[in-house]
Amino acid sequence: MKELFEGQGPLFTDPDPDHAREHFRKKERGLVNKLMPVKQAVEQLIHDGDYLAVGGFGGVRIPTSVLHEIVRQGRKNLGFSGHTSTHDCQILAAGECFDRCDIAYIIGLEARGLSPNSRRYFESGKVKVCEWTNAGMYWRYQAAALGVPFIPGRSMLGTDTNAHSGAKTVECPYTGKPIVLFPALYPDVAVIHVHEADIYGNARIRGNIIADHTLARASKHVILTTERLISSDEIRREPASNCIPYFCVDAVCVVPYGAFPSNMPYLYFSDEDHLRLWLDTERDVQQLDEFVKKYIYGTNDFEEYLRLCGGLERMAQLERQELLIPEPGQAAEEAL
């Protein structure tokens, strides 16, 4: 293929499928009990310098408990996949955990506004960046999951994003037209929050799974946090409901309300008050330091964080909000 254009952005990971296969061929294939606490999963599977990818989409299904633990354990110099990233980027930026980032969507918390601290962190020059689109990042996961070095696509053609990416534009051997090659992305670790999983790592996600089924297959290690543990008999009873297979997974951590303060579809709504508190606090560096000390460094685990945020009473409110159930004394139409 004739190369027409090369983006000037750096590639932070090796796209060679044969190199990745050297890892995957040694991965455990047996049905092994993978239950462990979040603290242990982070200690064993996430190391300084690793490349990290996070599941979910925007403000939905963020694996907050693991992200807090990464900050609490002081991980540094991580690579970070900024694919549909919101509060996850905000947490890791607060801990200055990453120093390079593939950017598709970061800093913003959607309609809630931009994260002042994430913006400061990127503008500080402490983070090397490479630009992509969300579609391009998904196709990079897809290439890795398929075991090929790249996937062709038409996203980014003719844009400055292409110029600042690590993609190559070539002449299509079939049509003679320009086409972009998206290099495979094999994260060292992916962290994904799911609705249900068994002890081996077979998992179910209700609602939109976005890229998570592909991300799990692309990543060298996968940490699952799950709202609920279910039996393997249940997994076998409805195989069509399972989206992540056990052989992709290295750790299963049971964390009810593990996506808080993001939304967990069909279970609980996002805590908009707490997310607003994050954003407002970030405007002042000293206040942010005190905030992070209180909610992350000053807590032993995610349960303690949830208690600081209102505990089961607040979780019950968010459950009613997600299911459009009126609060006591509230008219039904007011819950809509």
Describe the protein's architecture and organization:
The chain has 336 residues and is of the alpha/beta class. 34% of the residues lie in helices and 18% in strands. It contains 13 helices and twelve strands. The chain has helices at 17-24, 38-45, 64-72, 87-94, 116-123, 134-146, 160-163, 212-218, 232-237, 272-281, 285-297, 302-308, 311-322; strands at 3-6, 51-54, 78-82, 98-103, 128-131, 150-153, 168-171, 178-183, 189-197, 203-204, 221-229, 251-254. The strands form two sheets. Strands 2, 3, 4, 5, 9, 10, 11 and 12 form an eight-stranded mixed sheet that branches. The chain has a four-stranded antiparallel sheet with strand order 1-7-8-6. α2 packs across α3, α3 runs parallel beside α4 and α6 (134-146) crosses α8 (212-218). The radius of gyration is 20 Å and the shape is globular.
The stretches of 5 or more residues where confidence is low (pLDDT under 50) are none
User: What is the distance, rounded to the nearest whole angstrom, between the alpha carbons of the first and last residues?
Assistant: 55 Å
Which structural class matches the secondary elements? alpha/beta
How is the main sheet built?
Answer: 8 strands, mixed
| Number of DSSP E strands | 12
Helix % is 25-40%
Q: Helix tally?
A: 13
Strand content: 15-25%
Instruction: Report the average pLDDT across residues.
Output: 96
SSE order in H/E notation? Answer: EHHEHEHEHEHEHEEEEHEHEHHHH
